[in-house]
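Usage example:
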Amino acid sequence: MTDLSHIRNFSIIAHIDHGKSTLADRFIQFCGGLEDREMAEQVLDSMDLERERGITIKAQSVTLKYQSKDGREYELNFIDTPGHVDFSYEVSRSLKACEGALLVVDAGQGVEAQSVANCYTALEQGLTVLPILNKMDLPQAEPDRVKQEIEDIIGIDASEAVPCSAKSGMGVEDVLEALIRIIPPPVGNVEDPLQALIIDSWFDNYLGVVSLVRVIHGTVRKGEKMLVKSTGKSHIIDKVGYFNPKPTTVPELKAGEVGFIVSGIKDITGAPVGDTLTHAHTPNVAQLEGFKKVKPQVYAGLFPISAEDYNAFRDALEKLTLNDASLFFEPENSDALGFGFRCGFLGMLHMEIIQERLEREYDIDLITTAPTVVYEVLMLDGEVRYVENPSRLPELGSIEEMREPIVEANILVPQEHLGNVIKLCEERRGRQTNMQFMANQVQLTYELPMSEVVLDFFDRLKSVSRGFASLDYHFQRFEAANLVRLDILINGDRVDSLALIVHREHAFSRGRQVIEKMRELIPRQMFDVALQAAIGNQVISRQTVKALRKNVTAKCYGGDISRKKKLLQKQKEGKKRMKQVGNVEVPQEAFLAVLRVDD
Amino acid sequence: MTSNGITAPPLGLYLHTPWCVRKCPYCDFNSHTAPVELPETAYLEALLADLDADLPWLPQQPVTTLFIGGGTPSLMSPDFYRRLFKGLGERLDLSQLGEVTLEANPGTFEQDRFSAYRALGINRLSLGIQSFQDPQLKALGRIHDSANAHQAIAAAQRAGFERINLDLMHGLPGQTPEQAVADLQAALAYDTGHVSWYQLTLEPNTAFYSSPPPLPVEDQLVDIQDAGRDLLLAAGLQNYEISAWSKPGQASQHNLNYWQFGDYLALGAGAHGKVTLPASAPDNILRYWKTRQPEAYLQRIGSRTAGRQGITTGDLPLEFMMNALRLQDGVPSKLFSERTGLPLSAIMGILNDLVQEQLLEPMEKRQRLAPTEKGHRFLNDVLERFMV
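Running the assembly step on the lines above writes:
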């Protein structure tokens, strides 16, 4: 084996707001990766969206040269991980390329559930976890309590936890020193045939497909012919390099290192994430264990407002799936909304981000239908079907049993908010399976219907706990439930894209709430708009959006044209986010009325 | 005919006087508080210098209608108009001038001038009555009262005006259908042949817009309109445009020309014009407008034109329809091509959709582009279809 003792590959596990991006920025600054003037806040979050929302969506990497106190120069490869519950899949991907992880915990707030989950993923993958106590400059920092929490809740030794303040810069060097001392160097052989893992691939308009790789064995150089194992296709390598954080080309990447490869792959499926790369002349190199394929948890129909955008929409989705293997889509044809796609997401935040990226980066105006989970349906003939679109639910008469997905949710909450959180879980049909009092926090375990969790549970949880409760959940099983399809009718016509699957006990109230909300959200039109909720042929709720009686400008003379035109422009702008269903203009919000019934 | 198939449209002249005794809180026209002494001579000289400077590029056609609006044109003395008409006659072909309208405020001091105005050739008076009820007039910030209004109409009739328009507003703060009907009845009693009956709307950049009065809700507004419509129809008036009602033959020719997408010259502070030039220029159908501030208008030298802009091919259908479809009976279908130079086929898809939705009358029957009754009520929805 080659001596790789100067390399450290690591990730940072942290809850949103616990200071991961700030700490990463400090590392970059400390190691001289960027001039001060180049240090835009949080350089690693390169997508505008990431910076605006303060979260990390895509794995990114940066290679830093660190001059240690022991006199050696180290190469530190930091691979970023997302910090939101929706993106746990991306986390496991980043961790695959590392030997260690820094667990960054806010020394005032303590451990939260998502970090616990990610920490376990890291430990399962054999990573060394080094706890860091951040925000030590704040008066409410309680390092001893938080150390105890780390040991109680996660069960790792926190005695060597490094105190620091990413914000002030205090202790940053200590963190780097501890990192090279505690996290082991990679193991690999430069002389072996090339074996590299694709951590991430994305499409660049100028370069084509760019892949972020971790070289396990061997060396990869510009000009060589590489083989993508799963596709069996060979490509000449145009560029190799690393991010420091600016992309910097180098002649080669060696075993243990992390960097990027550009090879003129134009087809976005040409470099699948989790795949193995080798040289064309060594096709028998073993395929590395890739990433677990994750299944989307939430499905929704996305339809372009203008039918002309359909092809552009499909292209955009294809491009997005290159970077985001967790995004699923297949064509969907709705009677009401025309041609679009049924898309699967990791969660609501994932859905919102994809939707925003489609609109912002690809300039496509979309209507999104209410998100739904996947239901398991046992047919009378014994067939088991999975239904991720309420309008595709088979005839009730042909169904033996309907089953809904149940998740196990782990919640960490400070004691003073425990009551509120339990109340919320009960409202959402939860069953408590465990409750443990840790240092200051309580660890709650609930079984909850996934449909009650994925939509707005996280937001509600945050709001009933003043932001302190944290959540991690995973799918457990399907369980028989008394479910019905709630149909929504507009002017007597069933609108397929508005159908919902709901628990029978909630059907009446839910139907009434949705219809009431829609009545508020659908603007008045030239005619009455009748809204109905129905189960089968039984109408359970009814409302009317009264017709406007007129819409005309009282005065318009020779000098008024430009002002009156502006009014019309405003009127038209307002309809940009509306979709014509039959002859009724339905705004985006009305399709998501079910999400807003608690308002 | 110009070379691109556009027939030169009839030409009107809009002349703006920008001063009022006081600005009304609902008014978004270019009006300014009048100085103690109105600079009549200076304004006259500015108007004529402005016209002189623009004449070389303006269409050389007879002017068929003249409309003097404001502001309050009746603040200007008969002598101002005598000199103005003389000046205009020296510069424009007024041989075919028919309708000459002056907007007047129904105040006492104006009434004394009506005969003099009439003698100068002004043959149509448009009186800003707004309401015959003192509390409403007060709420609207008007400087006249109900008695003034009655006297003014009588004075105009005595002065020999055979064509008088009464401007009335409805949908006033706290107004009931009965009050609105009472206003109309008072107006109809004078049998003037023309009533402009507007719904009060809150326009941006007005006092009402920033602190809105309590206006009737939509259902009340429609009740007011229904009641008013019945009364006006019973009195033998036709609703020839959204807010304009007239006896046969009494429609405002000047305004009809706007709504038929005709041409009009602009003169005076803040006035807007629209003219059709020979087809050699790409922007041959253009709008132009004058400096708004009275002071600036007075001080500038030569042309007071502040901007001119061609109506783009994309905007032409919308701008044509914004006018033409205001008319209850619409316009002949062929007028679209005559005025815009575009073939009707360019908008046939939209027209067919609108006919389908019963917003536009079927065209085959009468070869007219005309809204249905429903299309008229929802004109803004109709017009939106023509937007690019």
